[in-house]
Amino acid sequence: MDKLVDLVDIPGSERIRDLNLDPYRANIRGVVFFVDSLTIQKEIRDVAECLYNILSDEVIHASSPPLLLFCNKHDQALAKSGSVICNLLEREIDLVRKTKSSQLASTEGGVRRHASLGKEGKAFEFSDLSAASFDVAEGFADGRDGSCDLRAVRDWLEKIA
């Protein structure tokens, strides 16, 4: 990679995520969102809410950064494929979007904190995001033998840098 890229790891925990994201929010040039391919079905609601909150953040949404959904732990036999994870997340983000919309509608005079994701009146799909691009990749960050396969992340960073 010829260009220097600063990577910032933002924790998934809601309590500390916003605090860690604040200093970088206005300058985000891309989002790499790691998903655990083994536990995604069990944690789908939390993962979808986390991704929804990041993508619908008004400052981040306004800059339309490219998004890479990285499906981690693909060195494991039971890992879900990227396409399965995309489908699961699209359905769950659609539910989160509807829930957040009804919460906003019932809050009179409340300040809207989230930008609208996808196309109104249509089920959520990643292809409808205003992001510059959306990609899915599979690999693993910490194999059982200490190995890793993050080539897809490196290639994606080279593409967007």
Can you describe what's shown?
- The chain is an alpha/beta fold and 161 residues long.
- The protein has one domain (14-160): P-loop containing nucleotide triphosphate hydrolases (Rossmann fold, 3-Layer(aba) Sandwich), CATH 3.40.50.300.
- 39% of the residues lie in helices and 11% in strands.
- The protein is built from 5 helices and 3 strands.
- It has helices at residues 14-21, 44-56, 58-63, 82-106, 151-160, and strands spanning 31-36, 67-72, 134-138.
- It has a 3-stranded parallel beta sheet, with helices on both faces.
- Helix 2 packs across helix 4.
- The longest helix is centred in the middle third of the chain and has 25 residues, at 82-106.
- The chain is globular.
- The relative contact order is 0.19.
- The mean pLDDT is 87.
Give me the CATH fold name.
Rossmann fold
Low-confidence blocks of residues: none
Q: Secondary-structure element order, as H and E?
A: HEHHEHEH
Average of per-residue pLDDT values:
87
Oligomer: single chain
* SSE-based structural type: alpha/beta
Helical content stands at: 25-40%
Number of helices: 5
Strand proportion: 5-15%
The second-level CATH architecture is 3-Layer(aba) Sandwich
- Estimated radius of gyration: 16 Å
Shape: globular
Count of folded domains: 1
Biggest sheet, spatial arrangement of strands: 1-2-3
Subcellular location: Endoplasmic reticulum membrane
Main location: endoplasmic reticulum
GO molecular function: GTP binding
Keywords: Endoplasmic reticulum, GTP-binding, Membrane, Nucleotide-binding, Receptor, Transmembrane, Transmembrane helix
